[in-house]
Amino acid sequence: MEKVAIISDIHGNIPALESVLADIASRQIKRIICLGDLAGKGPQSSMAIQIVQKHCEIVVRGNWDDFIPKQQESETIKWHQNQLTKIQMNDLQELPFSVEFMVSGKLVRMFHASPRSVYERIQPWDSLLRRLSMFDNTEHTENIAGNREPDVVFYGDIHNAYLENIKGKTLCNVGSVGNPLDLPQASYAILEGEFNQSKNGVFSIQLVRVPYDIEASIQIAKEMVMPELEEYILELTTGKYRGLKK
Predict the structure, then answer these.
(1) What's the distance, CA 38 to chain centroid?
(2) Domains of the chain, with CATH numbers?
């Protein structure tokens, strides 16, 4: 039996990332996969990329990873772009869309947002049809088992951790390390099973919440004079998305 930690949506929040990595290490988990959005929103994107590259064996591309390297009109995005080196910009552009492998007889697929796009947002309260579409094979997914659809899908993007079984399939959002929008604690998942094993075996998924020093994250953002600071503070302290309509 082997365990893999699955993290996502770091968003330049180093105190949160360090707390999650410490928790992973305390469980003696050696393998980590990241589901994207390393940069942006938070102040320390460059350091987040460095740390993720050091600790994660696989990193897939998120929507922020996709648009940050491109020319932007937003002054906020330009600020975040200026935190990164040209090499880091190139690294983000080269991240793969998805990854998949067998675990205890189950075909597992991981991507940032959906099998169609890093920008398509699927929430746990969306229709059954939309949630089932998360198991579709597309031109963007690896499809290592031919026409077989995945039994298990992990994703990030929505910053809202959940786990559900849908018509014999398992859908898991691992939440966000650096910008959780369900409750103000960092989130990640642990997958346990027999990796690269086509025979049915023991299989488990665990969602983990990790407290971290939110005030330290806020202080770093203040010292760096990060744009949209008040919105960032609101999200970190309350777990409420700035874009929600009142």
Answers:
(1) 8
(2) 2-238 (3.60.21.10)
| Angstrom distance (rounded) from CA 109 to CA 60 | 11
Tokens representing 125? 């309260």
Show the DSSP H helices in the chain as ranges.
14-26, 45-55, 63-67, 75-81, 86-93, 128-132, 214-223, 229-238
Amino acid occupying residue 81: Q
**Cα(182)–Cα(186) distance, integer angstroms:** 10
Distance (Å) of CA 243 to CA 15, 182, 239:
24, 14, 12
CB 69 within 8 A of CB 45: no
Rg (C-alpha) for the chain, rounded Å, is 17
The strand ranges marked E within 72-151 are 98-103, 106-111
Of 138, 84, 81, 129, whose CA–CA distance to 109 is shortest?
Answer: 138
97-156 confidence digits (pLDDT tens): 999 999 999 999 999 999 999 999 999 999 999 999 999 999 999 999 999 999 999 999
Q: CA dihedral in degrees (86, 88, 93, 99; nearest 10)?
A: 170
User: In the numeric block, which tokens belong to residue 13?
Assistant: 């929040």
| Both tokens assigned to 72 | 């932007």
